[in-house]
Amino acid sequence: MRFRKAIEEDLEAVVRLLADDELGAKREEYNEPLPDCYYDAFRAMEAQSGNQIILAIDGQEVIGCLQLTIIPGIARQGMKRAQIEGVRIDKRCRGKGVGEALFKEAIAIAKSEECGLVQLTTDKERGDAHRFYNKLGFMASHEGMKLIF
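Now predict its structure.
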């Protein structure tokens, strides 16, 4: 297994992973061809410094992904933080260490960018994900809130 930054040609595989669970199926639109909104979003991410999708690759196949965003800030004495979102591991590869290795890669990037913390949000319905994040050392230290339009 290896890791690399996603390129536009990877979008179909990324959206396939994002849509391949009960919650994701309600949120994503995995069709061929992909809707333009995914290409527009990817290009906006590419234009923004410190925002990337990291892929876990087995052979030539994308088996996992997450979005890592480096966020400069004033709070905490100007500490940079890393935000992880959109985490998915191919169903066939879960429980085999792929997610843990992908997180270790993201955390190593965050450290190399001199971030002081890594944060994430996770849907309250994702109990297995909560246990996984706790196992990696993440703590439920804050209550997250969203305003969806």
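The two ends are 38 Å apart (CA to CA).
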